[in-house]
From TrEMBL:
Record's protein name: Malate dehydrogenase (Oxaloacetate-decarboxylating)(NADP+)
Cofactor: Mn(2+); Mg(2+)
Keyword tags: Metal-binding, Oxidoreductase
Domain Malic enzyme N-terminal as annotated: residue spans: 17-150
InterPro entries, sorted: Aminoacid_DH-like_N_sf, Malate_Decarboxylase, Malic_enzyme_CS, Malic_N_dom, Malic_N_dom_sf, Malic_NAD-bd, Malic_NAD-bd_bact_type, Malic_OxRdtase
Length: 413
């Protein structure tokens, strides 16, 4: 067993199995405590909530709780390994919600036969939570699932692999292009992968200025083009009217590569075909489309990012989901809309351009970090992420009319 594999398994197994547990927020020591917590005292909030469901936010943990829900059909880049195998990742997301945003989070892995079954299961338990973070559900089912749940639930439902990834990718991409001296409107973009993350990343880049006709998206069969007759409605949105058919055809002279597909699919030779000063986001987890050492060995004018913590420029949805839910829940937003997503993009972007606190340098094991090729995006442990993203998102929710309450006074200044 390799050292790292052993360490990872030991971490998950000891001192107790798993990564999360439940803790009490009220005393439960005396007869009087129990009389308040349980029978007869608990009947009082029950009656209040029955009279007005909004009282659930006042008397229960609903408003600070996010469910992380998966069916295990696209676990990271490991594929469809089923609901139970996805549990370590979902516990991991719950850990990150708590660690970075103070949100209580529970993982729920759903075994189901039909997409409808999954939707019904989630819709039927949704009121328990303040928000629902869908995770690692493969395309195209993820699109139908998210749409149906948004329609049926009165709390925010957010497919992290789509929108969390897209927000962080857009923030990192706008900064990387700025460093490379390129405009997003002019950028030729290759997106390897045509699933949940790919479709959402490209749609958000378009909202940030990229041109749809400049985007070449690829799936396992190659370039998605207008003469293919095997495209689902989501891939069809990216069908390019082109004679190019392979990754090598489209990557020649491209400015940007976004990989949200699988491991080791981009070679050093492919990379050498790109335009001067390219941006390469190889975001597949745990193994990127190209290893940073291979990429940097191939050329020295690129900006490189991966989804991992152990290289510079971690483009990973961890920079978004804890904070966007914090902001959304704190104003009881009924959904997470485009205005809130764009607010998150700009909040993340701006932090990378400011001096980095010492505690972040220390946690990153470096002496300095300065906006540039090796630092286009903040580190996940940056304490500014929480107040800045949450505030921007909450304000956007209030301004766009999806908040059910006003901004809390002196909110995270
Ligand atoms: N860094 C980050 O924050 C994130 C990274 N990701 C990574 O993105 C990847 C995809 O995740 P997600 O979108 O949720 O999964 P999906 O299952 O929804 O999509 C996977 C896509 O990748 C394509 N693909 C797989 N293998 C190949 C290949 N050999 N050549 C070309 N295309 C291929 C599939 O093609 P086809 O349609 O033909 O099956 C499909 O379009 C994973 O590796 C995941 O770790 C995802 C979310 C966040
Ligand atoms: C980071 C993440 O959500 C993924 O790779 O699926
Ligand atoms: Mg995921």
């Amino acid at each position: 067993m390799s050292d790292f594999r052993e360490q990872a398994l030991h971490y998950h197994a000891h001192p107790v199995p798993g990564k999360i547990s439940v803790e009490l927020t009220k005393p439960a020591e005396t007869v009087n405590d129990l009389a308040l917590a349980y029978s007869p005292g608990v009947a009082e909030p029950v009656r209040e909530i029955a009279a007005d469901p909004a009282n659930a936010y006042k008397y229960t943990g609903k408003g600070n709780m996010v469910a992380v829900i998966s069916n295990g059909t696209a676990i990271l880049g490991l594929g469809n390994l089923g609901p139970l195998a996805s549990k370590p990742v979902m516990e991991g997301k719950a850990l990150l919600f708590k660690r970075f945003a103070g949100l209580d989070s529970i993982d729920i892995e759903v075994k189901h036969r039909t997409t409808e079954d999954f939707i019904n299961t989630v819709a039927n338990i949704a009121d328990t939570f303040g928000g629902i973070n869908l995770e690692d559900i493969k395309a195209p089912e993820c699109f139908e699932i998210e749409k149906a749940l948004i329609e049926r639930c009165s709390i925010p439902v957010f497919h992290d692999d789509q929108h969390g990834t897209a927000i962080v990718t857009a923030a990192g991409m706008l900064n990387a292009l700025e460093v490379q001296g390129k405009d997003i409107e002019d950028a030729i973009i290759v997106c390897l992968g045509a699933g949940a993350a790919a479709v959402a990343c490209m749609e958000l880049l378009i909202k940030c200025g990229a041109l749809r006709e400049h985007i070449y998206m690829l799936d396992r069969k190659g370039v998605i083009h207008t003469r293919r007759d095997d495209l689902n409605e989501y891939k069809l949105l990216f069908a390019n009217n082109t004679d190019k058919r392979t990754l090598q055809d489209v990557i020649a002279d491209a400015d940007v590569f976004v990989g949200v597909s699988g491991p080791n699919l981009l070679t050093a030779e492919d990379l050498k075909l790109m335009a001067d000063k390219p941006v390469v986001f190889a975001c597949s987890n745990p193994d990127p489309e190209i290893a940073p050492a291979v990429a940097h060995g191939a050329r020295n004018d690129l900006i490189m990012a991966t989804g991992r913590s152990d290289y510079p420029n971690q483009v990973n949805n961890v920079l978004c989901f804890p904070f966007i839910f914090r902001g959304a829940l704190d104003v009881r937003a009924t959904s997470i809309n485009d205005e809130m997503k764009i607010a998150a993009v700009h909040a993340i972007r701006s932090i990378a351009k400011e001096p980095v606190p010492n505690e972040v340098l220390k946690a990153s094991g470096v002496d300095s970090l300065e906006f540039g090729a090796e630092y286009i995006i903040p580190k996940p442990m940056d304490p500014r992420l929480l107040p800045r993203i949450a505030r921007a998102v909450a304000e956007a929710a209030v301004e766009s009319g999806v908040a059910q309450i006003d901004m809390p006074e002196n909110y995270m200044r």
